[in-house]
UniProtKB/TrEMBL annotation:
GO terms for cellular component: DNA-directed RNA polymerase complex. One of its GO terms (molecular function) is DNA binding. PANTHER family: RNA POLYMERASE SIGMA-54 FACTOR. This is RNA polymerase sigma factor RpoN. Keywords: DNA-binding, DNA-directed RNA polymerase, Nucleotidyltransferase, Sigma factor, Transcription, Transcription regulation, Transferase. Pfam families: Sigma54_AID, Sigma54_CBD, Sigma54_DBD. Belongs to the sigma-54 factor family. Residues 85-270 form the RNA polymerase sigma factor 54 core-binding domain. GO terms for biological process: DNA-templated transcription initiation. Residues 284-442 form the RNA polymerase sigma factor 54 DNA-binding domain.
Length: 444
């Protein structure tokens, strides 16, 4: 039996039409520019101007728009006291400690050890080397190194030089004349029991009441767990908002803050001067740089327009937030704005992250106005922010001797028609920074 195999080969030409988005360099740059915050955008343009002599970045002065002046006046009196407490961040914690050491301690061998230990103080103010290791590295004995640490712990801020949280709180308590009488000794001998809320052990050990332990615990909440944090950089406290919303007798008006948009100017005189050279290569160079300027200016303007359109949608959708004192947030997701403005969700995301809107009652990041929704049994939609507010209010009004458990909160919300799980309540409570019921119980 013979098997005959036949092979056929055919060639056909087919034409398939597909749609593909090619991310050109210009498109990628446009996307990145939208993502930039105001400060990042300015830095980017400054860098571009170094490479393109036809680009001039016009230095802006302080905001002159009357609405920003009005906003500033609103907060002048309220923030005056707070602003005076902001440290001079031109001096770091390390620099401050060095300055104090040279001012307070004589040039002795002990001061040399103090200066050695300061090198091992981290940004939070804690000592990151053991005294045994420090003594070994310097060749001194343990007692001398302990004396050096004692001198550091007498410097400002209170708590600096501590080796752990317990010691930091003890140092702060020791310096405070207003601290509860037993606060220091409880921290020293029963710190773990205090943190774990095993307060019955403390009452028996020191023969005091639960109310007195509660007073010590409340006092500690006003101390800082990281004494060096006061020297953290505060330069970002000042934010130039991208948008400003005005309330004129119930009518909301949205304005672009021109101060937040870098102004680009074309170096016309330099362009004409170079153009007269008659050199072909120079002419080509000028042509490319002029196109670069026009492209960059168009992208910056497009960024501003996109942020404004997104901001206008937010203001319209969250109208109650800007008009009502309780500042309610309606459910809003990226997809809703994307569909309404015929933009991609990623574009909306870039337009709201790191972009701010100023009001007469504060400055808010645009992404603050987004909240997923929870649908109640009757079909009504509530934002997660609303549910969090209800949870917060319930806990504020609870009996502190018998705080509400997460399950009790669930049952209360269900009665309001909100279908929610205990796990979700626990998640929202943790996001609000509220501890569990066992840790909220009070004894006063």
């Amino acid at each position: 039996m013979k098997f005959q195999q036949q092979y056929t080969q055919s060639q056909q030409q087919k034409q398939n039409q597909t749609q593909k988005l090619a991310l050109t360099q210009q498109l990628q740059q446009s996307i990145q520019i939208l993502h930039y915050s105001t400060e990042e955008l300015r830095a980017f343009i400054e860098n571009e101007s170094l490479e393109n002599p036809l680009i001039e970045l016009v230095e802006s002065v302080e905001p002159t728009d009357s609405n920003l002046n009005e906003y500033a006046k609103t907060y002048t009196h309220e923030t005056a006291d707070y602003l005076t407490q902001i440290p001079d961040t031109s001096v770091s914690l390390f620099e401050s400690l060095i300055e104090q050491i040279h001012l307070n301690y004589r040039d002795t061998y002990l001061r040399t050890l103090v200066l050695f230990l300061v090198e091992y103080i981290d940004l939070n103010g804690f000592l990151t080397i053991t005294l045994e290791e420090a003594a070994k590295q310097t060749g001194c004995d343990f007692v001398q190194m302990l004396d050096a640490l004692t001198l550091i712990q007498q410097l400002e801020p209170a708590g600096v030089g501590a080796r752990n949280l317990q010691e930091s709180l003890m140092l702060q308590t020791e310096r405070d004349d207003q601290s509860p009488a037993l606060a220091y000794i409880i921290l020293e001998e029963s710190f773990d029991d205090l943190v774990a809320r095993k307060w019955d052990r403390i009452t028996k050990k020191f023969n005091i009441t639960l109310k007195e332990v509660q007073e010590v615990f409340d006092y500690l909440q006003h101390l800082t767990p990281t004494p060096g944090a006061v020297f953290e950089d505060t330069k970002d406290l000042y934010i130039v908002p991208d948008l400003t919303v005005r309330n004129r007798e119930g009518q909301l008006q949205l304005l672009s803050n021109k101060h937040s948009i870098p102004e680009l100017r074309f170096q016309e005189q330099y362009f004409k001067q170079m153009e007269q050279s008659g050199d072909v290569e120079v002419a080509q160079y000028l042509k490319e740089k002029k196109q670069n300027f026009e492209s960059l200016k168009k992208m910056v303007e497009q960024r501003g327009n996109t942020i404004y359109r997104v901001g206008q949608f937010i203001v319209n959708h969250q109208r109650d937030f800007f008009l009502k004192p309780e500042r309610p947030i309606k459910p809003l997701i990226l997809k809703e704005i994307a569909e309404a403005l015929a933009l991609h969700e990623s574009t909306i995301s870039r337009a709201v992250n790191g972009k701010y809107i100023a009001t007469s009652f504060g400055v808010y990041e645009l992404k603050h106005f987004f909240s997923s929704k929870i649908t109640s049994k009757d079909g009504e939609e509530n934002s997660t922010d609303e549910v969090k507010t209800w949870i917060q209010e319930m806990i504020q009004q609870e009996n502190k001797q018998k705080p509400l458990s997460d399950q009790k909160i669930v049952e209360a919300l269900v009665k309001q028609g909100v279908d929610i799980s205990r796990r979700t309540v626990a998640k929202y409570r943790e996001q609000l920074g509220i501890p569990g019921s066992s840790k909220r119980k009070r004894y006063d």
